[in-house]
């Protein structure tokens, strides 16, 4: 969508636009190898993390960038790892567990390429990304950004504290169910849009209009 289309929707008075992060990217959470990358299956978060899209980079666990402190991996490590894998393992070892074991040993021996984000770095990263998102929306639409929707639904109590200091009053989660007249502003529930159909939408509207049904739906789903 263009900003002109978004502005038309906002000006209708029916729709509002709030913060959802500026980059919508991910962070590594540890350096335990889970597999190897395939270039044709990599997406935008991988480009942000790895710096380039290639086969045979190590796959590490990742979460949304607002979910906590990051495990920082220097980007030059990935090509070092790729060269090691292609020279020493590819077409030489076939057992998957043995491959992962050898790769993990190499990763552990090269720990100078890894570091843990400290509190100040984490806070600065969150503040800069959120404020850029807020500034852009308010400049383009002329509204006031006071709510935040978690990227991928990955929540963090520590990030809530940081964003509240920046003026955020409500946090929209991916949790299903109905919000009461006095909602939990730290976890606003919403109608899920995953694998949606018109029939599912109608059912959700029927459930969401009833507080008791909505609460039950939230508990069981």
UniProtKB/TrEMBL annotation:
What does the record give under GO molecular function? hydrolase activity, acting on carbon-nitrogen (but not peptide) bonds
Q: Which Gene3D superfamilies match?
A: Glycoside hydrolase/deacetylase (3.20.20.370)
Which residues does the UniProt record annotate as the domain NodB homology?
Answer: 120-168
Keyword list, A-Z: Signal
SUPFAM superfamilies xrefs: Glycoside hydrolase/deacetylase
Q: Quote the cellular component terms of the Gene Ontology held in the record.
A: extracellular region
Which Gene Ontology BP annotations are present?
A: carbohydrate metabolic process
Keyword flag Signal: yes
Q: Does the keyword RNA-binding apply?
A: no
The entry's protein name is: NodB homology domain-containing protein
């Amino acid at each position: 969508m263009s900003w002109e289309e978004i502005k038309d929707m906002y000006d209708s008075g029916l729709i509002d636009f709030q913060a959802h992060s500026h980059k919508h990217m991910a962070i590594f959470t540890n350096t335990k190898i889970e597999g190897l990358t395939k270039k044709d299956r990599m997406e935008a978060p991988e480009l942000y993390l790895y710096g380039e899209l290639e086969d045979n980079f190590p796959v590490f666990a990742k979460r949304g960038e607002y979910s906590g402190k990051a495990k920082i991996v220097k980007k030059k490590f990935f090509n070092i790892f790729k060269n090691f894998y292609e020279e020493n393992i590819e077409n030489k070892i076939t057992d998957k567990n043995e491959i992962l074991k050898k790769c993990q040993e190499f990763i552990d021996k090269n720990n100078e390429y890894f570091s843990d984000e400290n509190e100040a770095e984490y806070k600065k990263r969150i503040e800069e990304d959120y404020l850029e998102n807020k500034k852009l929306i308010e400049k383009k639409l002329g509204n006031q950004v006071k709510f935040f929707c978690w990227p991928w639904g990955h929540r963090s109590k520590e990030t809530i504290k940081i964003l509240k200091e920046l003026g955020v009053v409500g946090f929209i989660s991916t949790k299903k169910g109905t919000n009461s007249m006095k909602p939990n502003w730290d976890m606003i529930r919403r109608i899920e849009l995953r694998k949606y159909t018109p029939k599912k939408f109608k059912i959700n509207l029927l459930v969401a209009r009833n507080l008791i049904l909505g609460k039950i739906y939230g508990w069981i789903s």
